[in-house]
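User: Predict the complex.
Assistant: Input components as received:
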Amino acid sequence: MADEVKLYAVGGSPFVCRVKIALNLKGIKYENFEEDLDNKSADLLKYNPVHKKIPVLVHNGKSISESLVIVEYVDDVWKGVPILPQDPYEKAVARFWAKFIDDKFIPAIFKVFTSNGDEQAITEACEQLQILENELANKGSKFFGGDNINLVDITADFLAYWLGTIEEATEITLVSKDKYPKITEWADNFVNCQVVKEILPPREHLLAFFKKRFGKA
Amino acid sequence: MADEVKLYAVGGSPFVCRVKIALNLKGIKYENFEEDLDNKSADLLKYNPVHKKIPVLVHNGKSISESLVIVEYVDDVWKGVPILPQDPYEKAVARFWAKFIDDKFIPAIFKVFTSNGDEQAITEACEQLQILENELANKGSKFFGGDNINLVDITADFLAYWLGTIEEATEITLVSKDKYPKITEWADNFVNCQVVKEILPPREHLLAFFKKRFGKA
């Protein structure tokens, strides 16, 4: 029996795109169910009763929520191009950075825009950006994953693609090539990966969304 | 060459105890370095420069931070009693609940005590408790992990042992046997597991700490 793979999604979400990149890397075909977050489907509420949030992956009738949990599941179930390193220590390091991005980095960046560019928030966001800049410099590789993208790159999709559109929408700039050369280069490499490029939402849609969200439309 | 395993720790931390339980389950001997959080050691700052927090595991000179990342690493490196399920779906479910406990449950519980029993905070904490109560009822097993403890039980050590002492210190009660019979039974089973009991910090130390922390000492 062929696998039945369904994804409950919102195309503009960086968390959803993590899962789409993972599925794309593995060459998995899936049915996409686009959700309206103002009117969530009965399926979404059934499959993710705890958080009621996208993304949800349903594989042969069994549901999994939380983007990083899904990405690890995809890597566990479908072999081929690996998403996590095989070595236990390298795997732990990748999980550490993925967690850092979710728990520290993204909230710090968002605070800049929700506070309309509060100085303290900018200082803190720049500290987090510098940590990632240093990590890329220390690795000295094209991606956080080395020569190829891995869990950390996928988790950082927000930094590579979404952040620039929020910057444009709000006219608050955090990342410049001068200040964060490694991040800038990495972001360019990441969005130009075929498996990433294929699934990124149109930039103009995100721009319109964030202009509305941050009161500039 | 024998493995060199060091743990930078504070005995009273539920996050540290997760790692200690994992190491104990695997029968791993390690050297414990007790940290003074008001005067962190140079080693701690060196091994966890990003967060500067305990616990940190150093295995043959390589450091790993973040309690759940460490627990997964311990499970990856040392075979024997498994901490995560082997089945990819069950593994994803365990990771989902571990993440729920860290991201939603513990912050909701803490808010009750830092707000000195704010009604809204209590309502929200009880919602989270009910979710875990329902999960235990649905599973119908002794532990979140089934017949034996797994990643979820270990992650929930705070609920099993620490919460009761904070309740006593603050005189605010959230968990009663009447309201959450499954959680109460689970907590009793969990703290009586040999591998858990051996490493739990003395109750009176926690009680004194939380009385001081929440201004009742």
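The mean pLDDT of chain B is 96.
Let me know if you want any component modeled separately.
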